[in-house]
Prior knowledge:
Shape: globular
Radius of gyration: 19 Å
Oligomer: single chain
CATH class: Alpha Beta
Distance between the termini: 69 Å
Number of domains: 1
Amino acid sequence: MKRQLLTIIATLICAVVGAAGQPAKPQEQAVIVHFLYGSRDWKPFFSFEEKLENAIHASGVGEYDGNELAADGSDGFLYMYAPDAERLFKLVRPYLEGNALLKNVVVTIRYGAADDPKVKERVVKLGT
C-alpha cells in the first residue's frame, strides 16, 4: 500500500514537473513593446499602463507582466504574454496607436518560448 502511494505521488510529480526538473507550462508567446518617451514625468505613462493592463485582464486573452523604464525618461518596454500573441497584439494595438505619449513604437511578437533560439518573431513599427 505504501509503495502504491509513493508510485502515485511520483506519477503526479512527473505530470507537473518536466523532464529537466522545471515546472511544465504551456507554450508562452509574447508581445514586447519598445517605445520612446522623452519625459521624466512617468505619471501619464502609469495612467496609460493601468488602462492597458485592465483591458488585457478583462479580455482574458493574456497577461500584462510589467515594464522596464529608463530613469532619464528616454524610453521603455512593456511586456505581455499569452498563449496566442497575435490575439493579444490585436487587443493592445489600438491602445498603442491611440496614445500620444509613446513615440516610435516597435512591437516584437514572439511565437514561442524566450529560451528557444529558433523561435519565430515578427516586428511591427507603429509610430514615427
